[in-house]
Amino acid sequence: MEIKVRNLVRSFGMTRAVDDISFEFAAGNVFGFIGPNGAGKTTTIRIMATLDLPDSGDVFYDGVSVVNYPEEVRRLVGYMPDSLPDFRDIQVWEYLDFFARSFGLRGAQRTRTLADIEEFTNLGGIRRKYLAGLSKGMKQRVSLARALVHNPGVLIMDEPAAGLDPRARLELRSLLKILSGQGKAILLSSHILSELQDICDGAVIIEKGRLLSAGTLSQLLAQASPGSAAGAPGAEGEGKPGVTLLIECAKCEEARLKLLEHPAVREVIIREEGKLQAFLEGDDEVVPPVMGTLFAAGLPVMGFARKSMGLEELFMKITTGEVQ
Ligand SMILES: Nc1ncnc2c1ncn2[C@@H]1O[C@H](COP(=O)(O)OP(=O)(O)OP(=O)(O)O)[C@@H](O)[C@H]1O
User: Fold this and answer.
1) Concatenated DSSP letters for 48-115?
2) Are 33 and 42 in contact (CB under 8 A)?
């Protein structure tokens, strides 16, 4: 399954909520859809889930258009909204049974499908509870179960990790891992990066309705690291994420100049007294020769560590935090 979002535009009055957004992801990807409050995530997701129409642009699921074939798309997409089910008089099993019926599942097939989904989402023990009486984590699992009833190839989740405790978040993460391992393409939105950074293998980052960056984590890192197209135009090492080192040493300025003599060293910043941050081109193999230049020069090094840029740092780097 390949999902292609193409030039989506959606305005509400004077507000251009989604302004020419294009990105793509595919089976096996877990992509974070990230942007500050009001960035246009829910608007985009609702269009992707056929609940709203774009002013222009389209979304294609293996070539099937949301604008022209919404009914067909609904069979391919599992959508989990940001509001959770909250009915006082409906039990968990009834809720899921209702959606299974509406997707045309009948008889033994429906019973088997629902039993499998209840087991997968660990709902067996609470299937006779009323929805309104469930905890947030339980409701989240019911909502996920509902989105999976028709075995969609794509799962789109609006703020699934919001308000979950660390344990529930871990559970969500392992369920998503299994689902992506089964070949589903997954997109989940959040404005809180730390919620997503250990779940996702890629991200789509938007702000004020505009796309800032999209791709797998390594593609994003490559775009954002110094020396890449997005980091320092014209520098070498374009397309490679590179390595960042944190170095503790006594003679920072001397060490900085020595490091810069090495061809793999792109930039060195003195972070604070006694601490350097060095950006290297290439992969881990360049670390020993670069550190070797300091040792060979007899410069005292107290310690060093390889620092990998996480999604959070990347997000801070890419966005400016502005909202409309
Ligand atoms: N139905 C609507 N009518 C008017 N304006 C709307 C409507 N839906 C969204 N907007 C506006 O469009 C912009 C994008 O909103 P959207 O809900 O898509 O952002 P979001 O990224 O999902 O934000 P959040 O993280 O706060 O949920 C906002 O300025 C919002 O006020």
Assistant:
1) HTTSS--SEEEEEETTEETTT-HHHHHHHEEEE-SSPP--SS-BHHHHHHHHHHHTT--HHHHHHHHH
2) no
Which residues does ligand 1 sit against, CB inside 6 Å?
Answer: 12, 15, 17, 35, 37-43, 191, 324
Ligand 1 centroid from CA 9, angstroms: 13
The label of the residue with tokens 């390949």 reads 2
pLDDT for the residue numbered 102: 92
Which amino acid residue places its CA nearest to atom 4 of ligand 1? 12
User: Which atom of ligand 1 is least distant from the CA of 18?
Assistant: 14
CATH no., domain 1-221: 3.40.50.300
**274 and 246 Cβ atoms separated by less than 8 Å:** no
Confidence (pTM): 0.76
The reply to whether domains 1-221 and 240-307 share a CATH topology is no
Relative to the CA of 13, which ligand 1 atom is closest? Answer: 4
pLDDT for residue 274: 87
Distance (angstroms) between ligand 1 centre and the Cα of 38 equals 5
Distance from the alpha carbon of residue 15 to the mean position of ligand 1, in angstroms:
9
pLDDT along the chain (324 residues), means of 10: 96 95 93 90 96 97 97 95 86 95 93 94 91 89 94 93 79 88 92 70 91 84 56 41 83 93 88 84 88 94 80 61 42
Give domain limits for the chain: 1-221, 240-307
pLDDT at position 314 is 66
CA of 268 to the centre of ligand 1 (A): 41
Side chain identity at residue 236, one-letter code:
E
CATH number for the domain formed by residue range(s) 240-307: 3.30.70.100
pLDDT of residue 160: 86
* CA–centroid distance, residue 19 to ligand 1 (Å): 12
